[in-house]
Request: fold
Amino acid sequence: MVKILSSKLVGGVFIIAAILKLISIDEFEIYIYSFNIFSFLLTTFVSRIIIIGEFILGLFLILKINYKFTWRISLLTLTLFTLFLTYTAIFRQDSNCHCFGELIELSPLESIIKNVILILLLLLSQKSKDKRQKALSEVQSSKFFVLCSSFFVLLVFIISPPDSIYKMLYSTEKEVSSIDLYESFDEVTKIDFKEDEVIFDSISDFNTKENQLIVIVSSGCKYCKLGMKKLSLMMKKEELSAENIDIFIWGSPDGIVNFRKETMTEDYNYWHIMPNKAIDITYGRFPIFIWIKEKDIIKVGDFRDLDDAFFK
Reply:
């Protein structure tokens, strides 16, 4: 009984991890992208393949389908995850390894301990039932497995599609009020930072550049933070300078300081904009990314439009 429960417990953890990653898929994508291994387009698919793989492994373990093969793949998967987490614990200072998404935060070290426990449970469950019972179990469970796994694949790629697919299914024209945008150039106030303090510089004027990206965000907006974090990672990957990027932000001074830290945008130009003016420009949508060339708006995008091709 202990051996049977051990494999089911490991399978349950795989399934819970997959579901929690899916719930916070945007954060999981950005975390994988931060390792600078894949393009962002490929990252959106890799992240979903990981989620699907974890769910299927968990389902196989619980239902004991192809158990010997599943056991080996599960052990290999946990070993590879542990090696990856060891690298992360040594060379990075991540507060959350995203093994359980955003809802349950685990540091790489905590997740290593969790994986070691799961590996021990797998080793404990190594001996399975006799072949006759196992074969019977596989026949009874195969239809249920196909149904559940097919449903989960559809759930991942239809309800939470990659941005490239999402834009094809739900994309609409992005518009901004150009009149309000140009008016805001005379109204925004330069923000300087001294440690954790915001200083408003009312003397400096906003100047347009030949090529310029203006980002309009709210300091308390979840997707604004994700969008700016994604942008900063893409800029580093492409080795682009941040001098032509201006962030128009509204919110409390503490909120702006936290936004800057969380999004890794310490080198970017920050300007304070009044919330009513920001809403007038974006029609209430945040974040909005506006490419300007020689004072003309040439491209407008939102969080879903931001990918590697956005800079080309």
Remarks:
- Confidence is low (pLDDT under 50) at residues 128-133.
- The longest helix spans residues 131-159.
- The beta strands are 189-194, 197-201, 211-218, 245-250, 269-272, 288-293, 296-301.
- The CA atoms of residues 39 and 88 lie 20 Å apart.
